[in-house]
Structure formats: C-alpha cells, structure tokens
Amino acid sequence: MLIEAFSEAKDPSAPDTNEDRFVVLPGRAYAVIDGVTDRLGTRYNGMLSGQYAATIVKEALEYALTRPDRPTDTKLLIPILTQAIADAYRTHGTLDAARSDVNYRFSSTLTVALIGDETIDIALVGDTGIRINGSRILQIDKDLDLITSTLRQKAWPVIGARTSDPVIQEKTSRRVTWFGTRQPHEALADILDPQDLVLIEQHAVTACVQALPHVPQGDIETLVRGGIVNAQGAYQNNTSTILGYSALDGFEVPLSLVHFERLPRAEVRTIELFSDGYFRPGADFGVASWEEAFRDVEREDPAKVILYPSPKGSTATHWTDDRTYLGVKF
Fold first, then answer.
1. Of the candidates 121, 46, 115, 110, which has an alpha carbon nearest to the alpha carbon of residue 84?
2. Handedness of CA 69, 70, 73, 74 (dihedral sign)
3. With 0-12 CB in 10 A as exposed, 13-18 as middle and 19+ as buried, what is 39?
4. Residue 276 sits in which domain range?
C-alpha cells in the first residue's frame, strides 16, 4: 500500500489558517474534510468556525472508526458527526442561535471511504470529491455554486473598468459575491456606482437563466441579490428546492442529498480524495501530478473568471482556496 497526502492553506504563509483536514486510518478509512469559510468572523477555541467544524469532524470520525463497535456503513457515520457538532454548539451556548440563523453554524464537507474486507464504501457530503482508479471522479456539483460564480464572473469586467489594481478588483468582486447586488452601496462606493450593481445583476441573472433552465428564476435572483451571506444558507440541507445541498452542520442532513456508493474492493486499485481547492485533477496518481495540475490552473486562470469560474480567485499572496489531496494505492 502507498499513501500520499498534501494540504496547503489558501495563505501559504499562514498554515495555521487551513480549514481542510484529512484522516488516514490505514486499511480502515480515509477522509478529506473541508470546513466552510466563516461568514461572521466568530471564533471558537481560537479557531474560525470553518476550522472548528473540520476539527470536530476529524476528531469525531477518528474516534468513531477506531472503536471496537465502529460503524461499517457510511450512512451510520452522518448522525454521529452531526451529533458531535451539535454537542459543540451546546458547549458554547450557541445551539439556539445556530438553529435560527445558518450563518451562526459551523459547517464542513466530507468525503470518506471505509475499507471493508470485500467492499469500499464511499460517502460524499458537499463538494469534496474522490477519483477511483485514476479515471472515475465522484463529486457533487452544485448549481448554486455556478450561480455565485457567474455573479462574480459578471462583476469582474465591470469592476475592472473602474480600477487597474488587481487586489482591489479581487476584493471587490468577492464582496459582490459574498453580499450580493442589493447590499448597501456605501460598502462599494469607492469603486462602483449604483448603476454598476444594476448592470452586474442583470448580466448575472440573464446568464444563469440561460445556463440553468431547470432552476426557477426566483431562486437565481435571490442568490444574485443576496449573495452567499444573505441567501445561500437557506439551501443548506434543504430538500424542498432543486438547489438544496448537503453539509455537516449539527442539524439533520437529508441522506437524499448525500452521495453513497459501494465498490467491490478487488476492483479498486487507487482512490484519491480531494477538496475543492483543486480545480483540475492530476494526470496521474500522486501529489506531484495533482500539484502540477494545480500550477497549470493558476497559470491559465488565476482569477477564476474564465476557464474555472469560482466565487473567489487567487492573488499574488493567496490561493483561491485551501487544497488537500489524499491518495491511496492498494
């Protein structure tokens, strides 16, 4: 067996800010966890909520899978991890606040592979992914992310017409994505005028309606106008909408939003788990190949507004996101 792993924070000079985690229990389980970026700046035990969520999930997962009565079905893991986060809310006295406002929740994604005698059981919560045998990729693509990415994509040239400073362009585009087109204009007054936001909203809604004809226009408008902070939370673990997506946040995770798969162990030569900081998989197995693909992406589209649309991009000092790779060759 060969195991390779790599993780780097979006700010390489501050590795302690990394919100990704990985789990290696050789011959038993492997996982990659991505804490959801904090929306309010709240700290728990000295960590932002995304880091805290990822740490809770990692510790709870390792504890559950090293017990004599460890679960052998990935479906049984979800309530265990959910309970661990709920217990943390109780510890900090924030359970009621988290229940009423999703922005007070600490959340994470998870890709986990449980290794059995005859099978490998996989579960995907959120948008971390896994590649099997170097070719088949399992990853949940959210239409919701396409909407917020398109919002930033349409804001980018409008902002670029107002400033030649790439740092300001990135910062402003993120703020538009984060708080939407109907945020108080004072926060953007140094760069954009009110008509700019109207134009960005029109272009973003039009593009999303064309790209996502199955999504109600009202939902698209809600996300464009409210942005990630004001609108995205309503879709988390929500099965009543086509834009619903899963996350571990201490409250019920509908299993219909989680991808489960069982593979014959004899047919699996490699598994490669990864967080969404990788926009393109490596050509081959291993950290070196995935990092080469990462460098290619950064060279081709560092701002993530052309080939790899994203709600945020890279700058001279920060990558777009934390990234983690965990490869196992059996």
1. 110
2. positive
3. buried
4. 2-140+246-304+314-329
Judged against a pLDDT cut of 80, whether residue 38 lies above it is answered with no
Cα 80 to Cα 23, 39, 129, 224, 266: the distances in Å are 16, 25, 21, 35, 29
Stretch 87-95: mean pLDDT, rounded? Answer: 94
Q: Which of 111, 120, 134 is nearest to 27 (CA)?
A: 120
pLDDT score of 125: 98
How many domains would you assign to the chain? 2
Same domain assignment for residues 196 and 255 = no
The model's pTM is: 0.95
**What burial class does residue 123 get, using C-beta atoms within 10 Å of its C-beta: 0-12 exposed, 13-18 middle, 19+ buried?**
buried
User: Which tens digit of pLDDT belongs to each residue from 162-196?
Assistant: 999 999 999 999 999 999 999 998 889 899 999 99
Q: Model confidence over 221-234: pLDDT tens digits?
A: 999 999 999 999 99
pLDDT digits (tens, 9 = 90+) for 256-279: 999 999 999 999 999 999 999 999
**Would 240 be classed as within a structural domain?**
no
Q: Are residues 83 and 122 in the same domain?
A: yes
Judgement on whether residues 222 and 288 belong to the same structural domain of the protein:
no
Last-in-domain residue among 204, 235, 266: 235
Lookup: tokens for 40: 């309010």
Q: Which domain CATH number covers 273?
A: 3.60.40.10
- On whether both 112 and 34 belong to a single domain, the answer is yes
